[in-house]
Every structure is written in C-alpha cells, then in structure tokens.
Fold each of these.
Amino acid sequence: MGAARIVVIVLALAAAIGLAFVVRSMASNGTVKVGAAAEPMVQVLVAKRDLPVGTKLTQEDIGWQPWPAKALNSIYITDGQPPSPAPASPREKAAEGADKVIKAVAGPASPAEALYGAIVREAMVAGEPLVAAKIVRGGEGGFMSVVLHPGMRAIGIPVNAENGAGGFILPGDRVDIMQSRVTKGENGAPDVRVTDVVVRNVRVLAIDQTTKLEKDGNSIVGAVATLEVPPDAAEALVDAKARDDDGRLDLALRSYADLSGPTGQIARVGPPPPISTTIRVFRGAETTEVTPVR
C-alpha cells in the first residue's frame, strides 16, 4: 500500500475518532438529542449529475445513496447488503463516514466499479437510480449500436439548412421525412409534382458526428442526419433516395407535444400510382371519357 493511502487512512480515522469524542462530550452535557431510529435503508446506485445519452460512466458520474427499503424497486442496483437502520446519531454518522473513506481508499472494490466505462443509452437526471435498461456495459458495441433500441436501424439522410428546418433539428428530436418529386404525365398529360410523407415520427440520433448539443447551442447545420428507424422504414428511405434523380428528402420537425404517435409509420412504399390522363364527363344519363391534349 502506498504512503499516500496510508496517510489518508490515518487522517480519516483520526478525524472520525476526534469527532466521536466531541459528540460524546456534547451528549454527556445534554446538548445533543438522539432521536428515534430511522426506517431501514438500502444503498442504491444513483446518478451524481445529469447524464445525457452517450455518456461513458466514470467514478464522478455515479455513487451510492441511502434509499428507504420500503420504496426499493427490484430493478434498482444495490450494494447487496441487507437493509439496515439509518444512523441515529452524529457519532454513528461520523463512524459511517470514516468507514466510507477507508473503503474508497483501500477497501474491497465497490460493485459500482463494474459499471465504469458503461454507456448511457437513455438520459438520466441527478439522483435518479441506475437501471439496467438505461445503460450498456462497455465493450458491447460502439456508441451508435449502443444507443439504438433493439430491432431498430440507423440510417443517414443528406441535410442542409434548407431541408433541415434551418439547422434547428437537433439530436434527440423527432421528425417526419417527406419527399417531393416530379411524376411524368402519360399520353401527353403535364408533369405533376407529388409530395409524400415517407416515414413518420423517427428519432434523430446525430447531426454529422454530433450526438448532443453543446452548452448554450441552439442549432446545428450539418451535412447528414442519422435517424433511428424500423427495418421496413429504412428500406423505404433507401428506395425514396434512389427512386428519382431529382427526388428530394426534407425533414419536418415535430413538436415535443406530438411525440406519442406511431414511430416509423410508412405513408406509402414503392412507386406512386399512375396519374389518370382521362377526364370523365357526365351529361344527363350519358358518360363520356375525354383525353386532354397537352
């Protein structure tokens, strides 16, 4: 054990013992009142700070926090110890604090250490208990494969300030993808411009290689938007990009109040139906079909 660790341990023990004597002296003088024992508590692993998607967990990101045993959820990560009453006096709190310092410096490895290097796949706020569904252990895939939900695909769509809502589409937003193209008329009929919603309500994973907005940023103008879509929607988008040389894809930003609709719902797959070039004319009981001349 290094000299630095020995010094830290000695100082922690000295501080704990000193505080214990002070508290004991105060208690003997009647200046400290010890309350009733608190309800049983369990140590639960929680986020120490807000953790955005893609965060690689370190010691500064997660830590143990006392949690009422009666409010414990089976999906929470605990230290494996049985519930114990919370410290009922300052002296007990001091002893507990010293014990934590010693364990942190030279004691056995904490179960939390097994999660160092894991990646956050769903954002968490400070104080929120960690659950397995919101993290992926390191080594189980690259960033993009980690943040993708099971069964989903990541696909890139060319964007610019014009077709990307002026750069206000950001990672984490939801969008609809629309295509506008010209359909050739038949038998001399004029060409018609058609606009379709190819895929609805899909999540934006990244703009170029940016997966989260920088502090105080409010827009990103990039060249490619990476979207999370179901497999059939990915096929529809590839088909839409290759269907016509002049086909254009636009991303329409959805409101946060409108995110609960179907995800990846395909409005239409494959080529559009042919445009009718025949006009039906009704005169009384007679019906006549006329083909207009361009």
Amino acid sequence: MKLAHLGHSTVLVTTATSRILIDPGNYSSAWHDLTDLDAILVTHSHPDHIDPAWIPALISHNPQARLIVEPSVPDVVDLPGAERLAAGQSVTLGRTTIHGVGGRHAIIHRDIPQIGNVGLVIDEPGEPRFFHTGDSLDAVPTGVDILAVPAYAPWCAMKEIIDFVRLVQAGRGFLVHNAMINELGWGLAFSRLNEMTDTRFSDLTDQQPVSWT
C-alpha cells in the first residue's frame, strides 16, 4: 500500500488493485489534477472534506471512478451517481473492501447541529488495514495497521487524540486535518503522539507517496 497525504484531510491510497482518493476538500489543492482514480470517498459534507467548487472537475477527470460518500453528503453537494455509505455498511471495489464506521461528526459546540460522519477502513488481502477517521474519534475498529488521525480540530483536544490513538492500537500512523495549525503546532502534536502512544507516527507533509507493508 502507498499513502500520500495531499494536504489537510486529503489522502491518496494506492493498493495493488485500487487507487482511492479520500476527502478532496477546499483546504488543499494537490488533488485537483489527479486522474486514474478508481474511487473518490467522502467522510462528511464539510467543505474542507469535499470542495463543491472543484469536485465536478475531479469527477469529470475520473469518469470511471465510483463516488462513495457519507449518506447526507449528496443532500448538501450535487453529486450525480453518488453511492451512499453509512456506518456499519461495506462496499467492494475489486479486491478492496471499504467499511464505514462511526456515524456522527464530533460535537463542535452544543449550539451547532451534529452532522453525519463515516470513518473509512480500507482492507485488501495482503495489504495493511488503513483507517481514516474523518471528523470523529468515536469509532474504534479492530485490527488497524495504519491510522490517519487529526493533528488539530475545533472539535477535539490533544488529550482526546492521544487517548483515541491508544485505543485504536495501530502500529503506525500519520497526521491529517492540519491546515488550521502552523508548523509549531504540527510539531507539538507529532512529538507528543510519538512520545505518549505506542503508534509510530511518520511525517507525510511533503505529499509524496510512502510505501507501507
């Protein structure tokens, strides 16, 4: 499996048989010209996870790609042909299986209504098991090998991220959801998670694909 962090929460997953883009949002642009995608996955409807301005062009550049999204996303963004993936459901993409977990976005404030959020677990025989949380720390799937976890978000604190990483027990991980902090904040999160959990975090901020076995 190759993973590239393309800014904020956008991750490109390349397995032996599939090329999958997760959360093409408006806090990053490195995904704009991608082609040859087999699937585009969206965890929830916030624009930093799906950019309404650029998603039509991405779909046009990848007419063969399946669009698989949290169930409420098509109610917010016009996505003809989108498949809705809820927590507890799975879809197959060739030899790749995508599992939806969780169901609700983390609480930002009691006065802001919660929306849906589906965490994504990607499985393929012979590949590591990868988990992208989206914007929630509720679901703790088993057997995760690689974890993409927020570096910072308005809806969580570092103590919550540390405890969540300890629960997931992935061997390796990297930070996403980082567009809202500077290099000092990212470095603090990176060092604390490496010091205080058993998950070994890698730096993927150069946006280059990294092979994971």
Amino acid sequence: MSQKDRAVATSVIEIANLCVSYSQAKVLHDVSLDVRQGEVVALLGRNGAGRTTTLRAIMGLVSKRSGSIKIFGRETISWTPYRIARIGVGFCPEERGIFSSLNCKENLLLPPTVKNASSAFSLNELYEIFPNLAERLSSVGTSLSGGEQQMLAIARILRTGSQTLLLDEISEGLAPVIVNALGALVSNLKKRGYTILLVEQNVTFARPLADRFYFLENGRVADMVHAADIDMRSDAIESYLNV
C-alpha cells in the first residue's frame, strides 16, 4: 500500500489505550494501534510481549479489558466473541482450535457464514486452495498433520466469508514448503482486499507480506515501522525481537 493509499484508507480496527489483565497481572498497558482497509499489519515481539493477548482482546476473549476497540467504526470493547465474529472478523488462534470429535469436513462446516457474505469461499474453492484437505475429509481433525491442521483452521475462516482476519503464529513449527504456501495465500488474500492482523515471531515470513509492523515490548507498543523503512531500522528491530 502506497503512502497516499495509507493516508486515505479507512481504519477497520482502531485500538486506543487498551489494557488487559489476567487475575492480578496486567498484560497490556495502553496499547494503541490501527489496521486499515486492505492492509496486512504484522504484530511482532518476543514471547510474552502481549501479541496473542491483543488478538484475544479484539475478539472479546478476555474479560478484564479496558480502553477502546473499534471495528468498522463501532465500539466493541464490551461485545461478545460471537457478536464480533458475526460482523466479519475471523480469528485463527495459535492452537488452531480443531475439534477432535469431528472429522475434517465437519470441522470445516462448523462455523456459520457471515450474513450476506458474498465473499465466502465455497468448499470447491477451498479444496482447490488446500488439496490436502480434499483428500482427508473423513479423517479425524486432530489426526491431520500440523500443516494440514493449519490449512483447516484458515479454510474454516475463509468459508465463513469474514474479510478481516486475525492470524496468530500461522507459520510456527511448520515445514518450509507449508510456510511458503501460507505466505502465498496471505499475499493472495491481500490482493483480494482482505484486511489482516498477523501475529508473528518469524520476521522472514512476515516481512514480504506486511504494510506496517508494530513491535510490542512488555505489553506496550514500542515502535511502528512502515515496510518501506524496514531495512533502515534493522538494528532497532533486532533489539525488539532478540532475547
């Protein structure tokens, strides 16, 4: 996305002064960021920096949160996960959420489509994108390989028609050929106008995909870098990510 496009793009997700606590421990401290229409934004940081918690807060999956989370201009800080999903936000958690009691096809068909979602991928389209799934439809969901489970988790979201995606560590622990395929998929979704917030620790994976990069440190936004400036900020970026 060009500088001019960034200036006029509408924010799909706007977070301001977001604080999240688990029990007595405060995990996020006044986090503010935005994701604009058609962008891929990467949220990077060390383990424990608060990246996954940020996604869970957007989806309404944490109870102790304060501040502001606007989606499509609507304040959603008090909304339930179901209500957030129904307006077109799809969440692919790090643990993938595949049900062991369902086979591959049943997992795929489980979530409902978003109302009036003309963007929903058909099953045939998904089988073309993920041919491995077409061959494993009757297999128990959790018997699939790690890469196949990741494909299933993403395919499930695309079938709902959600065009705003929260993707948590989708490249983690997978073979390079699968990682490359997932990178190509994210790139294609971006071309189709999807808005994506991508949590990653794999900078190599996120770098060619993202328009902007936010860096979290100890539950706070430490920096935001545009893709065009990433090479000039390599030393700072290394400091945010190294243990």
Amino acid sequence: MPTKSVMVNRAPVLTLWATVVAQRMGFDEREALTLAKAVTGLNAQSKGQSLGIFQPREDKPEKARQPEAGETFVVALLGRHVPAERTEDGVRATADGKPIDPASVRRYLQGKFGENLPEVRAAMQALAGSLVPQELAARAYSLYEQFRPDIPAGKRGWGAQGELDLQRIRSLAKG
C-alpha cells in the first residue's frame, strides 16, 4: 500500500523537488542534486534573513556570458539564480565558490526520507512529468508551495517537521 504522508521538514522536500525539476529540465542526476542543494541553501538564507536568524551576505555579481571550464555561471531553477560551474564531471552548483558534492546531497536526502525516498521521488517525478519542461520551469515553485509541509509561522517553524501529503502531490499531477 502506498504511503499517504511523511513527516519531514521543508528543506529536504525542496531539495528533492528541485532535483526532480532540474532532471526534467535536462540535467543529469548528479548535476541536479547539486543545483537543488544550492536552491535550498539560497531559500534558507533568504528565510533566515527575514526571520532575523541570519545577517545578509554580499554576493558577487555573476558573469552573463558562456562560461569557460571552471568559470562560474548562473542556472535559473525554482525562481533562484544558482551559481554553478562546468567541471570535468559536468555542471556543479557552487557554495562559497566550491562545487557541491552530489554524493553528500544524495546521503542527505536518504537520511531525511529514509525508506520513503523512492515513493516520494516517484510522486514528484509524476508531477514533474505531467508538465512540459517550459511550463514546469515557470510553475515549479508555486507547485512546491501547494504541497510543501505545513509548519508553524515565524521562528517557531524554522526546522520544524510537517506532514508531506503524497496524495496531494499525486493529485496535482492528475490536475
């Protein structure tokens, strides 16, 4: 019998969803994992600043031309501009100027979702697959807002777990 819900906080949900979306946009799994982790980090930074948990940090402007090997460029994903670079292993999002390790993101997702990861991923893949890539790119974050776990508002919700309703994700794919 399929799982109906999973108790989890929003960060791994966003990371997994951004991974699925990036893959649907044409990135391979390892590239998508790093881009997703960066999106989640950018969102956490913004939310933390709005709650007074983090201080704003100064970001360097990104280059707007085709990058050379090792040079930083920007990938648009879920309404964020993710710094990335082309490495020998493909595109990798960067954090603090260093490529993110896709294996660490994979371990993070496995640790947060445990045995539910394949089922949650399948529900998200069905949703992503129900839209053409261009429409998915435009709607990905608003879809996430429709299925993300409900948590308390403000600082009380920081890191709090909520219920991820897999049937809700599946119904969005049908709709």
